[in-house]
Amino acid sequence: MSDALLVRTEGAVRVLVNSNPAARNAIRPELYDALQSALLDAAADPAIGAIVLVGDGEFFCAGGDLRALATRRELAPSERRLKIERLHETIRAIRACPKPVIAAVEGGAAGAGLSLALACDMLVSARDAFFAMAYVKVGLSPDGGATAFLSQFLSRQLMTELCLLGERLTAERLHALSAVNRLTERGAALAEAVALAARVADGPANANARIKTLCAQAGSNSLAEQLDLEAKLMVASQGDDEAQEGIAAFFAKRAADFTALRLAKNRHQQQE
After folding, report:
1. CA gap 43, 193 in Å, rounded
2. What is the Cα–Cα distance from 162 to 152, expressed in whole angstroms?
3. Would the N or C end of the chain have less CB density within 10 A of its end CB?
4. For 214-247, how does the pLDDT look when each residue is reduced to its tens digit (9 = 90+)?
5. What pLDDT, in 10s, does the model give residues 140-158?
6. pTM (2 d.p.)
7. Where are the alpha helices (DSSP H) in 25-119?
């Protein structure tokens, strides 16, 4: 694993740490492959139920490395596109991961750092953190899916203002706009995100993956398309061991033990 990404496990939660603290965790090229690989590893590990993405130290991510971006003018447009696609492949990997990914934001998330945070399924932020579409400040337009994600909770007018001015939005403002799930005091975002991830990890892994798919597609699907997708995934869910356990637990008036199903799968994989 690259030193651009630190990986550790806390119970059923995999914590992925973007590590470039000297530059407020600006994205290094090594991060793309490392993060995609770590997401695949977590997705394939039955012992893991959820993932937390965090910055190393007191800042989530300052976005792209401007020193590197300053040299892009020297490249052909096709080469520039390939470099942008590395970011976009990483965003797609977060969205495609079957396990919920939660961002824990301290300090701030700017530019592509904001894209990374918004790509996650849920977002926990310190109350004093800020979020900024800072691209315009250096003569650039947004990438990383930022405008797609912002359009899910901002009006066109407010999103346009945010992108054209590059001004900071507070975590409290984003919380009021429903983009931030939990607010914490400074220094507590990671602990809150891990606690939230642990709660998610206690749930049914297969159903969680199906729920993530439904939530991701609800905004762009027509009602007919979403009904079809719901039916398809419900058919799969009804035949799953998780439903058998959940329904049996309901009638027995006990808590469902979905963790046991996940760990049994883990033991089975280890024995193969």
Report:
1. 18
2. 14
3. C
4. 999 999 999 999 999 999 999 999 999 999 999 9
5. 999 999 999 999 999 999 9
6. 0.93
7. 29-44, 66-69, 77-96, 112-119
